[in-house]
Protein: 2-hydroxychromene-2-carboxylate isomerase/DsbA-like thioredoxin domain
Organism: uncultured Rubrobacteraceae bacterium
Amino acid sequence: MSDRPAGFASRRESRVLLGSKPASRMTTAARYSRSGFGDHGYPEPAFAGRTQACPWLVPREDPAFSEHGVEVRAGRRGIERPGRRGVYSPLPDVSEPAVGAFWIQTKEGFMVVDVYADVVCPWCYVGERRLERALALRPGLEVELRWRPFQLQPGMPEGGIPWDVYARRKFGGEANARGAFAHVGAVGEGDGIRFDFGRVASAPNTVDAHRLILYAGESGRGAQWKLADALFEAYFANGRDLNDREQLAEVAAGIGLDADEVLGYLAGDGGKAEVRASQEDAYARGIQGVPFYAFDGGLSVSGAQPVEAFLKALDGA
């Protein structure tokens, strides 16, 4: 393990992934996610009792979180490999892989990376940019990035809730919210990302956004990634309402999809079962938060880690 970058940490309370005992103390994120929205008049999440809180939504001074937006346990690192005692192997011992399972490498220089993320998670946006930079440093490697839906708040009302209500409840006060915004904004600036939280008006239910990204995948390789990037920018930089299907269609049209066809798709039930299946699959694999990147060969990267961590995963560590 001496060849791994120092200072990386994997997620707390992931028994399957890390083979560790749950922390004796429930973190701020766990307390908030377990309380759901019931404390201010909104429904409890459908998956109540599981930690779904995005790490950036917790005051930075909370010792349970690292600078990379990863929920941590002492002594654990950000790159994990199967085959070691207590470490979860994502390759199931079955003939047909479940939703989100890795593909076996079929030819030299080709890799599939499953990306578990949510479009309202700023660390997922940061991680996307860092993974892109790592891929640019490996031009000879053909990589397919597959979007795996993971809702941080699966019990969010269909129309979402006002952002100021959500932020105050999540951060425990306006001062904490400002501090968290400043921190993630500074990190994003270093990665070429513009966060403008002052323009964000609502905390949306992201089912339709995830459905749309899955739909984009039918347009060819790379379309999911382009749309995910466009949705990140639309939400965090431009304050677009991701609950509004008209606005979702406009964003999709920006990457070449037909807006009318998108609206027709969103009006139906297409993709809803797949979004739910991806969430349940993530839980079954021990994934409790995002971003989470699953690479061919069994390596995984948890959190918006530095480019070097992604390079190690791409190279097989």
Residues 15-314 form a domain with the Glutaredoxin fold (CATH 3.40.30.10). The beta strands are 79-80, 110-117, 142-149, 161-162, 202-203, 292-295, 300-302. The chain has one domain: 15-314.
